[in-house]
Amino acid sequence: MKHLFTLFLFFTFLHSSFTQIDFYDINRYGDISGLEPFFHGVASGDPTDNSVILWTRVATDSMEAHVKWHIARDTGMTDIVAEGWTTTDGTLDFTVKVDVTGLDPYTTYYYDFFSHDKYSLRGRTKTAPSTTVDALRFGVVSCSNFAHGFFNVYEKLVDRNDIDAIIHLGDYIYEYGDGEYGDVREYEPSTEILNISDYRMRHSYYKLDPMLRRLHQQYAIIATWDDHESANNSWDDGAENHNAGEGDWATRKSASIQAYDEWMPFRKPDATDEERIYRKLSYGGLMDLFMLDTRLIGREEQGQNESDPNRTILGADQYNWLTTEMGNSTAKWQVLGQQVMMAPLEIFGNPVNDDQWDGYPAEREKLQDFVINNNVPNMVILTGDIHTSWANDIPLDNYDENTGANSAGVEFVVTSVTSPSFPFGGVENLITTFNPHMKFIDLVQKGYYILDVTENRCQADWFYIDDVQSQSANESHGASWYTDDGTRHLNNSPNPTVADISIETIYAPTDPRPFETMVGNEDLNELAFIGVHPNPVSENIYLQFFNYEGHEMTLEIYDALGKLVIQEDLGFRAAGLQNKTVPVSSLTAGTYFVILNTEKGNYRKSILKVKQ
Question: How far apart are CA 80 and CA 74, in angstroms?
Fold first, then answer.
């Protein structure tokens, strides 16, 4: 969702001014030279009681890369419980995803990858329990727009060291170009992303962020997409931000899904269905987590035929799957991770945002009736998208605002990591006057919440970051709301939950483990290619490379016969991450070699030029 003020047209949105900064600065972000060829770090996701997805990406000059993976019980990687080899290539954008099975339930593991005689960072992950445990804790986040600031929220979640996994409710990346929506940090590519190469590069750019890299390194993530992973206010057959001249929507949507599948550590629930991301993850007898897609697979267009009783936001297949799984579940809590607010939000009796479930009232009522008629006692909805914080009952007819009677469940809405909200508060009481089922609202602050689940209650604790425009940020407790087992409504708690960390889990180490044949930094190259997109190419190629030290540089492109066809003086390029766009539309179809020259050597990538 692009602008929160579309929810409240009677308020004035005051735009803030920001200071432009460069993306990569060693003093600000740290030196990633020791991570080659695994510049993007490591990640894990979708834990079950005996398996987990492991992820990385290899930056290589080769046509393919052979990668070994290891998973162990200790940070030194001596007590290895499983290992194996896999291969990646350009068809996967050199990403690696491994579904490791045969693990023990509710156990912390450490893992890494090996390729090109070097190890990746070591990551930490944790499997789900197979039986009921005393408590589960998750960090819940949404809406991390790179252009609006720093990912301090991710850093604070890592520092906690008291949660089982991260639940990301979408808008993990944003599709806009520079200056279109936020101007604190620049994007790569600098234009709006439209095709598979654009989406891959944007994911790459995000995962070079040190705070996000550290989050992935230390916690498994359970993620689903929202709209900005494709385009703002998307639906099955289009999007508000897919305009004339931007090509075919189905092609763009497919490209966004492919890049998400390559770059995110989630387990594809159906290998034959590229669009399906909705899935269930069970946490023993305590919780079933249903990660839904209210955005791409079944949503009908916003603002159309809202009184149609067959109108859907989930689609028939997903709705039937969800109700069947919820009806058959024996877990204490049924938790729905999804994108847009389910509780009604009205002003003077009129819904204010048809992008939310308010635009699909018949299906919301149908789901609520299912919950009541099938005695689903503990439905908890986790929501993102709108960059603000809310704790809501889900009211039925004859809802009692004083007792919470006649509520179908509860909803915890997380604010954004960076994406902008209202620049002012003070209207929350007005909103609750029209919507008494809304028990807590904060329209301003950035942060996350901790979801704490026990046999007796499920509680959300909101924590807020004081600043996202610098890396120096403090956090504070904002609010806590909970629902008791079987009650289906909210209560206020004055205090956040406290985790039992009597046995503290050890962080994954900061650095990769050394390989025996490596002597030291003197063996490192002066430059490393991170990516060349797209390849094959028709119009422009985007070079992404890392300088270990500053160089005077030139760019040369040769055809297959050795003829120099493009040459450019790049001048002095500082140490750190560098990007370069090269137009190649004038070249005929065929194989070419891109060479970056420094005073100490040259570095080559092959590309295939195709017709426009």
Answer: 8
- d(CA 137, CA 166) in angstroms, rounded, equals 9
Domains of the chain: 4-20+131-492 (3.60.21.70), 32-130 (2.60.40.380), 530-609 (2.60.40.2550)
* Average pLDDT of the segment spanning 150-157: 97
Q: At what angle do helices 210-218 and 152-160 cross, to 10 degrees?
A: 30
- The whole-number pLDDT of residue 1 equals 54
99-134 pLDDT, tens per residue? 999 999 999 999 999 999 899 999 999 999 999 999
Per-residue model confidence as pLDDT tens digits over 475-523:
999 999 999 999 999 999 999 999 987 667 899 999 999 875 433 333 3
CA separation (Å) from 553 to 76, 238, 574, 578, 595? 40, 43, 10, 12, 10
Q: Residue 271: which residues within 8 A CB-CB, separation 6 or more?
A: none
d(CA 95, CA 33): 19
- What are the structure tokens assigned to 77, written together? 């990687």
H-helix or E-strand spanning residue 221: strand 220-223
Give residues with Cβ within 8 angstroms of 311, minimum separation 6. Answer: 300, 305, 360, 362, 363
**CA 461 to the chain's CA centroid:** 21
